[in-house]
Amino acid sequence: MDKKKIIFLLKTxxxxxxxxxxxxxxxxxxxxxxxxxxxxxxxxxxxxNITTPPEEDYKxxxxxxxxxxxxxxxxxxxxxDNEKSDLTLSANIRLNESERKIIIENIHVL
Length: 110
Hints:
Elements: H1 3-18, H2 22-27, H3 36-46, E1 50-51, E2 62-66, E3 71-80, E4 83-95, E5 100-109
Antiparallel strand pairs: 1-3, 2-3, 3-4, 4-5
């Protein structure tokens, strides 16, 4: 497992959420089954603003290896209004020779 690559992909996605770049997320193919407007709705339903987490928060992400695939599942608690929240980003990460991508599975309260 290459945790540095996983963290890099996660940080890039979180920064896009912080900056409300929902169309960019969709254009990069990271939105999964959601379109930009649906991602916006998922975030706005929670209330507050997603904010950049402290760097050390990325060291404790829950990474689950998916068997027989170069793929990982993560659950990451987003920061809202500068505090860790129960708004959780669930995503799959693919790391293989031809692809390094994070894909949103859900944004939900956990």
